[in-house]
User: What shape does this take?
Amino acid sequence: MLQIDIHSTVLTTAIIMGVAALIMLIFGINNILKSRKIPFYAKRHARMVRGWRLIIVAILLIPLTWLILNFSEPVVYRFISPSPTITQTPTVTITPSITITPSITLTPTITETLSITSTPSLPGDIGDEFEATVTPSPDALFSDLQFSRRIDDNLQPIEPALDFENPVGHLFGTYSFNNMTDGVQWSALWYYEGELVYYETYPWEFGSGGYGYTDWNPPSNQWLPGLYEVQIFVGLNWKSSGFFTVLGQPPEPSITPTVTRTPTPSKTPTITPTVTVTHTLWPTRTITVTITPTPSRTPRWTATESP
Assistant: This one.
């Protein structure tokens, strides 16, 4: 059974309408030219009218074709969820190498080819940050990621690429998704040469199907040259990956001198202590004088009364 996606259907329709407009235009001009050679008025007029009708229809088909090609696909996705293509698990194949045995006669030894299939796994410390309580659906699908420096209003990449020259700046990884459930835990992990350099994880709230993106905007000097990989997880289950390469050395960070203002020391008033000397008078001696009365002398005579 032949299956055609929405993008291919829109493109095919636009091509058919464009070819039909071109054919009608040619037939219309041909009818007008041939009508001039017909001597009978009625037949000449009928053919000329037919020719002009074909030309008018062709002119109307050209802008209609342009509208279908540019605006019909986003309108269709408002009613029909896109079905992304299932991406197979990446397989790492080791290329056989020739080992030279040190002897008089060099005998090449071909080692057996090893086929290693590894499925990316979510680091445990990121899993500890999960907040969602909804169980992910095993039918959730994510397409391959496309990388670009900008995206449009429909979350489509503008000038997607696989190689980016430094300075890279803000980078987006866009994808389409289907069969998602609001409330499940979604995670995006950014790796550089196999080392985790950035990640984001939060409960999903963007519906069951459509388009989405993950982005990273580090300082310019953190975009080191080499291979980068972005992995998408739903819960603990890996769903999709994308790869891109950064070329060239990152720009050197500019050093901005920091001006430190030293406050002018304020004058502190000097307090001169005032010493108050209190003279303590020595205690005054108190002289107690005891006067002992001298007994009066008693006369030793006897007074006699004279006659």
Remarks:
- Residues 111-116, 297-307 have pLDDT under 50 and may be disordered.
